[in-house]
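Supplementary Methods. Inverse-folding protocol.

Structures were first reduced to a discrete structure-token string of length 366. This string, shown here, constituted the complete conditioning input.
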């Protein structure tokens, strides 16, 4: 079994068209396909958004029985499916189930696959297995054009961007919150069943709160999950809030990789994206501490975090959550050689989220 990367991420949302408008206007995605009752998706409405190598599917249930309807009722809008690119969906499904994953949907083949105008159709095989919480993994095997669509989705007519000027390039990683006591078991599940390796672990204590984190990664390095659990012996904090508001384990944030974080954050801020702030004192010794190549004043002005590992530097910034439950948010990250995560940025993120949630609480009490 070879898991080469993330094929797509599917969000279950209350209103796919409204969510699509936000991702397009704020982040620069474009709608390249859509599906619904008129295309054979009887009980749902879906949009496929693309930018760089990123594919996002937004799905809303049209009936009370559809899984997206129940997901949104319980969790609110959020990531429900993480699609994994594999070279053999049927074989991967069999291996994963034999190793301990639960089969959610057996292997199916869609052929010929609808493709955008000017391209030739291909064949897509897929199967679904269990992941974490209510999130599942769709195993996707593609033969034919790389931009072939998912079954039930048809191309949206009209001109599409040629890639020039796109800011977001890849899905760098997903951060996943799990209840206290489940981090080790979740990490072991991905190691034993999916063949991932645990590449990083860290305990963070901030203001009487504590959290454990671990990173698991596919052998190809194309799929990276950061796992986070709260320390129940410490004062409850934002990880506990996520688990309560989300009603269980789920994706806390989705990280988009960029080539130039200063350019990307500046452009996104102009479009109205709001980012978490960082105290100015964070940058006072940054140059001496890390030897940062990017002008520190640009980082300070945009509240971009900087860190390093054994292989190089990384730069990160996190958005404010726009979800009514204050759960899912996004990250922008640029790697300059770094392969893992610096512990300084994990602490800085935790502190930034605490400031955001404290501000929301104060506003509600006013």
């Amino acid at each position: 079994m070879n898991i080469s990367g993330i094929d797509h991420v599917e969000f279950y949302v209350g209103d796919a068209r409204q969510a699509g408008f936000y991702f397009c206007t704020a982040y620069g995605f474009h709608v390249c396909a859509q599906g619904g009752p008129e295309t054979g998706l009887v009980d749902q409405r879906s949009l496929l958004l693309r930018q760089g190598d990123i594919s996002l599917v937004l799905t809303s249930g049209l009936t009370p029985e559809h899984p997206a309807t129940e997901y949104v009722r319980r969790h609110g809008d959020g990531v429900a499916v993480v699609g994994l690119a594999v070279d053999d969906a049927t074989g991967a499904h069999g291996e994963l189930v034999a190793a301990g994953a639960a089969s959610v949907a057996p292997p199916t083949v869609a052929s010929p696959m609808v493709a955008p105008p000017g391209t030739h159709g291909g064949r897509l095989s897929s199967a679904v297995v269990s992941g974490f919480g209510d999130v599942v993994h769709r195993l996707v095997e593609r033969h034919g054009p790389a931009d072939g669509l998912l079954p039930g989705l048809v191309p949206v007519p009209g001109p599409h961007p040629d890639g020039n000027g796109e800011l977001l390039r890849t899905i760098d990683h997903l951060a996943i919150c799990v209840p206290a006591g489940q981090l080790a078991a979740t990490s072991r599940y991905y190691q034993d069943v999916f063949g991932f390796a645990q590449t990083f672990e860290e305990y963070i204590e901030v203001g009487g709160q504590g959290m454990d984190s671990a990173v698991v990664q596919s052998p190809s390095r194309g799929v990276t999950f950061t796992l986070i659990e709260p320390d129940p012996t410490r004062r409850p904090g934002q990880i506990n809030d996520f688990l309560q508001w989300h009603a269980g384990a789920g994706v806390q944030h989705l990280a988009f990789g960029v080539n130039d974080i200063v350019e990307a954050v500046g452009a996104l801020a102009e479009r109205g994206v709001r980012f978490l702030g960082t105290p100015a004192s964070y940058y006072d010794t940054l140059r001496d501490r890390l030897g940062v190549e990017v002008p520190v004043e640009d980082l300070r002005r945009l509240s971009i975090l900087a860190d390093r590992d054994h292989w190089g530097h990384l730069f990160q910034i996190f958005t404010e959550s726009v979800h009514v439950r204050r759960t899912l948010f996004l990250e922008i990250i640029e790697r300059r050689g770094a392969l893992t995560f610096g512990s300084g940025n994990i602490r800085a993120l935790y502190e930034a989220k605490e400031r955001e949630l404290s501000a929301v609480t104060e506003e509600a009490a006013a």
